[in-house]
Write a structure and sequence with these properties.
By secondary structure, the protein is an alpha/beta fold. The strands form three sheets. It has an eight-stranded mixed beta sheet with strand order 1-2-4-3-5-6-7-8, with helices on both faces. Strands 10-16-15-12-13 form a five-stranded mixed beta sheet. A three-stranded antiparallel beta sheet has the order 9-11-14, with no helix packed on it.
Length: 418
């Protein structure tokens, strides 16, 4: 009998490294935070490649599209936040970024500029997607270096799914002395051993990140099924980084922390809108600012405060104006969120039949869940599934997709096995 087959979704910083190795110029690591309601004027467009991408309640989100920009650059600001999307999520990346920025603002942190990093992530299979993420990491690292050289203050990188491979990979591509203040993968599409001793990103995390906070949920079946010890991209005895964290925390760099959000994130698409994720990340960033800024010890002489009488004051009545919530457009029930892209619709008994998805969501929403029924009792989750049918016949493959607005759609294809 064929089994269920699934694949993954559409991703000590040394104190001495605060001084650039070339030229020895010390790069400022000061954080400038804007608490909720302080009236921030964002500098998101200054010096950035790309255009305005999405509106958040915090700074305006701009897009850095590595696919089309010949001379990519990031804004040179005191507090820079960049978010990298996952596999097949380029169109939704800007809105994902805005969702995370809104959550951070609600928790008390607003960057001076927020950037949606868009990169090529449309490969037809997992191996191709992993190759694309490695290429994006190598291309993005010099952009980060250039921003730091130009005077950017604190650099924060966050990501979802395949984007975790981009931001972690970029750390390993940075030159000596370059340091990113915060890296926050959410549901990273990777093996846990990649950030432990001997792993491909261990040195990058240890030498080029002040702090890495890896948000993982055991409810994330997409990553667990793809990168767990029994997954297609998993290794025996290893873990899925985005579902389980690292296999041995003692083997990870001192700057690395696993953050288990299983109780708050119910699936692969739930990280960006989770207050548990954005609240923890905002707190970590604010704490980092406190560690960067030292208040000199001063001794205040004892003084006696004279008794004073505060006069009664009357607070005038104020009327809060009515606000109108803008209408949002919900896709009709006939609109597909995702469609099936089959490798073939006919084959012989025992052949490997492969199925991918095409993202139909557009820019306003993104895919949060994908469930497969392969017609013979086998099931799967995620952006890819495959099966070997044990007998001849006609099988209906069904894909049920859910988006970030809670809408669902179903697509079907028929497979003929002879």
């Amino acid at each position: 009998m064929p089994s269920d087959r699934t694949r993954f979704d559409s991703g000590t910083a040394r104190a001495a490294s605060e001084t650039r190795a070339s030229g020895g110029r010390e790069k400022s690591r000061r954080t400038f935070l804007r608490c909720l309601g302080t009236g921030l004027v964002a500098a998101a467009g200054a010096g950035a490649s790309g255009s305005v991408a999405a509106q958040s309640s915090g700074p305006e989100v701009t897009t850095l599209d590595m696919r089309v920009t010949d001379d990519p650059s990031l804004p040179v600001v005191d507090e820079l936040f960049v978010f990298a999307h996952g596999w097949n999520s380029a169109s939704a990346g800007p809105n994902m970024t805005a969702t995370v920025v809104d959550g951070l603002a609600a928790a008390g942190y607003e960057p001076d500029a927020a950037v949606a990093l868009v990169y090529q992530a449309d490969a037809s299979g997992p191996s191709g997607a992993i190759e694309q993420s490695a290429a994006a990491a190598a291309e993005f690292a010099p952009v980060v270096e250039a921003a730091i050289d130009a005077g950017a203050g604190s650099v924060r990188l966050a990501s979802h799914s395949l984007g975790g491979r981009v931001v972690l990979g970029a750390l390993s591509e940075l030159g000596p002395g370059y340091v990113v203040d915060t890296v926050a993968p959410m549901g990273a599409a990777a093996n846990g051993s990649t950030v432990t001793q001997g792993g491909q990103w261990y040195d990058g995390v240890a030498e080029h990140a002040r702090e890495v906070r890896n948000y993982h949920s055991r409810n994330d079946q997409v990553i667990g099924d793809g990168f767990g010890s029994g997954g297609t991209n998993g290794n025996p005895g290893d873990t899925a980084l985005g579902a389980e964290g690292v296999p041995d925390p003692s083997a990870a760099p001192d700057t690395y922390t696993d953050v288990d959000v299983t109780n708050s994130v119910s699936g692969h698409g739930g990280y960006m809108s989770s207050p548990a994720v954005t609240g923890d990340l905002a707190e970590a960033i604010i704490q980092d600012d406190g560690e960067d800024t030292e208040t000199p010890n001063t001794e205040t002489p004892d003084t006696e405060t004279p008794d004073t009488e505060t006069p009664d004051t009357e607070t005038p009545d104020t009327e809060t104006p009515d606000t109108e919530t803008p209408d949002t457009e919900t896709p009709s029930s006939g609109d597909l969120i995702a469609s099936i892209d089959p490798g073939a619709t006919s084959g012989s008994v025992g052949d490997l039949m492969q199925f991918w998805i095409a993202d139909e969501t557009g820019n306003s929403t993104w895919i949060t869940d994908l469930q497969w029924e392969l017609g013979d009792g086998s099931t799967g989750t995620g952006w890819y599934a495959d099966n070997r049918y044990g007998s001849a016949g006609t099988y209906t493959v069904t894909l049920t997709a859910t988006d970030s607005a809670g809408n669902t759609s179903t697509d079907e294809v028929t497979v003929q096995i002879s």
